[in-house]
Write a structure and sequence with these properties.
This protein is α/β, with parallel strands linked by helices and 193 residues long. The chain has 7 helices and 9 strands; from the N terminus they run E-H-E-E-E-H-E-E-H-E-H-E-H-H-E-H. Helix content is 42%, strand content 23%. The longest helix has 17 residues.
Length: 193
């Protein structure tokens, strides 16, 4: 498959900025888009399902995929926690005549964009402030004081890379952020390959 002819949409943001909410909105309203299911070595949370939310695998399985060059991008996002985008996942979506939508971390997004600059649209979702991001993460009730501080520190670092992306959307109002992302994506999809 010639990757240079296939369109890719990348949505990235620090944890808590709203990229998953925006991605869900876009997928619900545009059937030509398909969610790219990432591979992950963490355990499923809540009602998450293998092959729907993530491809859950052991660290050993993930490393085996790395050795076989099966990933388009991969990162060790937190110590011992790997995430990546399988090339086979892109193939699956393109075979369905859809455009893959990647909801991935900042480093992975930069990597995809560098590899496929001509056919990738990258959008960085920025929180209105680091303080607001911290408030959103606290309201989830899933973080310890230490993990919250680690996420806030990582978010501040990731925000420093926002200018590496095609577009920056500040998510102070979710419906406005969804509309902005939708407009950018529809313009991108209308461009000839």
């Amino acid at each position: 498959m010639n990757y240079s002819e296939k369109k890719i949409i990348v949505i990235t943001a620090p944890s808590g900025a709203g990229k998953t909410s925006i991605t869900r909105y876009l997928l619900q309203h545009h059937p030509q888009l398909a969610f790219s299911i990432s591979a992950a070595t963490r355990q499923p949370r809540g009602a998450e399902k293998n092959g729907v939310d993530y491809y859950f695998m052991s660290v050993e399985q993930f490393r085996e995929h790395i050795l076989h060059n099966d990933f388009m991008e991969w990162e060790m996002v937190y110590e011992g926690k790997y995430y990546g985008t399988l090339k086979s996942e892109m193939e699956r979506i393109w075979k369905n005549k859809q455009v893959p939508m990647l909801d991935i971390d900042v480093k992975g997004a930069i990597h995809v964009q560098q590899q496929y600059p001509q056919n990738t649209l990258s959008i960085f979702i920025e929180p209105p402030s680091v303080e607001e991001l911290k408030r959103r993460l606290e309201s989830r009730g899933t973080e310890t004081a230490e993990s919250l501080q680690a996420r806030v520190n990582k978010a501040s670092y990731e925000i420093s890379f926002k200018h590496h992306f095609d577009h920056i959307i500040i998510n102070g109002d979710l419906s406005r952020a969804c509309s902005e992302a939708e407009k950018l994506i529809l313009e991108f999809l209308a461009r000839p390959s």
